[in-house]
Every structure is written in C-alpha cells, then in structure tokens.
Design a protein that fits this description.
It comes from Ureibacillus sinduriensis BLB-1 = JCM 15800. This protein is an alpha/beta fold. The protein has helices spanning about 55-60, 90, 100-105, 110-120, 125-140, 155-170, 185-205, 215-220, 240-245, 250-255, 265-280, 310-315; strands at about 1-15, 20-40, 40-45, 70-75, 75, 95, 175-180, 205-210, 225-230, 230-235, 295-300, 305. It has a single domain, classed as 3-Layer(aba) Sandwich (Rossmann fold), CATH 3.40.50. The chain has 12 helices and 12 strands. It has an 8-stranded mixed β-sheet, with helices on both faces. The protein has a 4-stranded antiparallel β-sheet with strand order 2-1-4-5. The chain is globular. Magnesium ion (MG) binds next to helix 1.
C-alpha cells in the first residue's frame, strides 16, 4: 500500500505582460502528473532540463503553489496544508537539493544547521539533541568535530552528506532528492549515491530521485517516470523502462546515454539513427498537434505509456 498519492498535479506559472501587466500566457511547468509512493522504494523522475522536475519536487513539499490536483498523505488531503510547520507531513517529507552549498546557511555552524529540523519537530533536551547530532554525523560518515565548523570548510561531497544528515534528522519517510549529485565530481558521485542507498536500506526510506541522468536513476531506482513538458510520457519499473521502453521519447533518451567503451560504437551509432528516424515517423502517435503528451495508457500491471490508443493495439 502506498502512503502518499499525487493526483493530476498541475503547477502553472502565469506570464505577465502588456501595458496593464495582465496575465497573457501560462507556463505549464507541471501539467497533470499522477504518482504514488510505497515505503522503502526509490522512484526516479527523469527528463531534460526545463521539463518540470524541480517544480514537481518543490510543489510536493510546499515551496511552489499548486494550481490543481491533490496530494494525499496517509489518507489525509494535505494539498493546501504543507506549510504548516508542525504537521507530520513536513516532518516526514524532506528534500535534498542539487546545490548543497547554497542550501546550507553559511553563517551557521554544522551543529545548528542539523539541529534545525530537530528543534522544529522533535522534543529533545539539549543533551539528547547533542547526542542525536553526533549520531547523525556518524551515520553520514563525518567526524564529530564537524559540529563546530562552518559549511565552507567542507568539500562538495561532504556538504551533500551534511545536507543528507539534516534531511534524515527527523526520521522521514520520503526524501525528495533533486539532482543530488549533479554538481559533484564523478568519483564523488558514486560515493554519495552508494551512501544514499545504504541509508535507504537501513531506515526503510523512500526516495523521489530527480535527475536528468538515466544512468544514475537506473542505479538508484525501482520505479521510473519519464517527464516531458510537464507530463509523463512513460512510467514503469526499472525493467519496463530499460528493457521494454515503449514511448519514442524514452527510446530516444535511452539511445543517447553515452558509453565509455569503444566496443560496438558503430552499432550504437546506427541504432541511434534508427531511433531518431522512428521518432520522426511515429511522432503523431505520441504527441498532439501542440506537442502535448497524450494521457497515459496501461500496458501492463506496472507499465504505462502516453500514446494514442491505436498504438496501444500494436504493443
Ligand atoms: N518561478 C517561475 N516562473 C515562471 N516559470 C518558471 C518558474 N520556475 C520554473 N519555470 C519554468 O517551468 C519549467 C520547468 O522548470 P523546472 O521545474 O525548473 O525544470 P527542471 O527541473 O526539469 O529543469 C521551465 O520551463 C521553467 O522555465
Ligand atoms: Mg531542476
């Protein structure tokens, strides 16, 4: 059973202009997405820059106003209650940002940064709080003396670990991680990702893992949604998406994953050309005349694809 459901979520930004500064258009940043989260699972949200991933994450935790749709958390409609400081939703759903540096207050010591959610949500004595902070630092592999330092004294990977320590301080159920490793060196990326997996297993966390990188998502996620212009083109398990992709856009993204090995390079190039020709030829079955993605149709128990019903017939 899922503990959280998102139904037909939309976030539209008004575009103002003209002499009277009236609303002349809307940016449909998120335009009708539906998903649900189960305990202990990792969900991937993938798509090109600008497709609406960050807006989705921010809308979920209440940093962005929702135009329509609903968020149900443990049976309660929390759509318009997410900024209520003491609510269990705010304790249980935490976010990690791509830019660990700007999400950590540079004027505060690590101890006070990590203590913030603890003071907001947990009723601890100063002694218990101190112990909790030491524990959290140990979990994220940072030394005890980090407590008294400032964020700028740490490397990018270490800062991301501090962000994670803060995110897990209140024992959350869901962590929304928006491109958490994109700003890090490749070698550090792997470390942070593996560490995020470890704590997921240890604490039974769920992740909404946002990334433009299909390779990273494959490593981290059980279930994946591919986003294009504010809508899902395809959603399914890792196997559905990587071994049985159906949408022309998913196929195109997959064929564009860079391979380090020179072996089979010619074949991959031919395959990319074939995928691209198919994309052009099949376009009208997957996008309407305004380039809007169709509604999702069910392909199997776990797998959904946005296409016209004619295409579904031949799947
Ligand atoms: N505050 C805003 N006002 C107007 N448009 C916005 C705002 N924030 C984001 N957008 C637009 O919404 C779309 C989705 O942005 P975003 O969610 O940041 O995409 P992603 O994280 O996938 O790169 C983009 O077209 C972006 O320009
Ligand atoms: Mg983003």
């Amino acid at each position: 059973m899922s503990f959280m459901q998102i139904n037909d979520l939309k976030v539209h930004y008004p575009v103002r202009g003209g002499f009277f500064n009236t609303v002349i258009d809307q940016v449909l940043a998120v335009d009708g997405i539906t998903m649900e989260f189960e305990r202990g699972k990792a969900y991937g949200l993938v798509g090109e820059s600008g497709c609406g991933k960050s807006t989705t994450g921010k809308a979920l935790i209440g940093l962005e106003k929702i135009t329509s749709g609903s968020i149900i958390y443990e049976g309660e409609n929390v759509t318009n209650k997410r900024r209520n400081r003491k609510s269990s939703f705010n304790r249980d759903v935490q976010m990690i940002f791509q830019d660990a540096h700007s999400s950590l207050n540079p004027r505060k010591r690590v101890r006070d940064i990590i203590a913030e959610p603890i003071r907001n949500f947990l009723n601890l004595t100063p002694k218990e709080e101190e112990r909790k902070i030491s524990e959290l630092l140990e979990i994220v592999g940072m030394p005890e003396d980090a407590k008294l330092k400032y964020p700028h004294e740490f490397s990018g990977g270490q800062k991301q670990r501090l962000g994670i320590a803060r995110a897990i301080a209140t024992n959350p159920k869901l962590i929304i991680a928006d491109e958490p490793v994109s700003a890090l060196d490749l070698s550090v990326q792997a470390q942070v990702l593996n560490f995020m997996k470890d704590i997921q297993n240890e604490f039974g966390l769920s992740y909404l893992f946002i990334s433009h990188d299909l390779g990273v998502v494959k490593h981290m996620c059980d279930h994946i949604s591919i986003m294009y212009k504010g809508r899902f083109v395809e959603t399914g398990t890792k196997a559905d998406i990587y071994t049985n992709p159906q949408h022309i856009y998913t196929k195109r993204l997959l064929s564009a994953i860079p391979e380090v090995s020179p072996v089979g390079r010619e074949n991959r190039k031919r395959e990319r050309i074939r995928v691209e020709q198919n994309y052009q030829a099949e376009h009208k079955n997957y996008f309407d005349e305004n380039e809007r993605v169709f509604d999702l149709l069910q392909v199997s128990n776990t797998h959904y694809v946005a296409s016209t019903s004619q295409v579904k017939g031949v799947l």
